[in-house]
Amino acid sequence: MSENEQNSTSKNLDSAGSELTFSTAVVIALLSVPAVAGNALILATIWRRTFLRTSFHSLLSGLAVTDFLTGLISQPLYASSHLINGQNAAVKPDNPEVVNVLGIIAGFSTYLFINITLATMTVMSIERWLHMSRRSSTTSHRRYYAAMVR
Q1: Please, which residues have CB within 8 angstroms of residue 124's CB and are 6 or more apart in sequence?
Q2: Of the residues 31, 45, 64, 137, which has the fewest C-beta atoms closer than 10 A?
Q3: Cβ distance 58 to 144 under 8 Å?
Q4: Strand residues in the chain grouped as ranges (E)
């Protein structure tokens, strides 16, 4: 394979990768709005209702808060850092350090919120299993301690 063919092949692969990154960033940016709005509605519904709040409602609120923050912080920062750093970006950043910090914050917040979401879902599954097997002795104080530990 000649050097021109190798350069052409690598440019095609880079182009496909950058197009995929660009389209992924656009989709994530667009899905950020319904994530924030939907989780805000869930939180408003749980907090405004006057029914007896169980441990499930506390865990569901925690999950909604985590997803709300993901849509408010992680998704826009991820999309903006990839749209600015992309090869097809219309505007080149004047200060690349700021863009790098955006990427670091986006990555850290995504990692943090994903881990909190997985821990909350695990606790919800265990709590539902204990409730169904009638072994639950969860009081409101224990519920808040469990939420702080996770």
Answers
A1: 56, 59, 60, 63
A2: 137
A3: yes
A4: none
pTM given for the model: 0.72
- 3-class DSSP assignment, residue 52: coil
Consecutive sets of 10 residues in the chain, 150 residues long: mean pLDDT of each?
50 62 88 95 86 79 94 92 72 74 90 94 86 64 62
Question: Do residues 127 and 59 lie in contact, with contact meaning Cβ atoms separated by under 8 Å?
Answer: yes
Q: Among candidates 109, 112, 119, 108, which has minimal Cα distance to 63?
A: 119
Q: Specify the pLDDT at position 68.
A: 96
Helices 55-69 and 140-149: angle between axes, nearest 10 degrees: 30
pLDDT at res. 116: 94
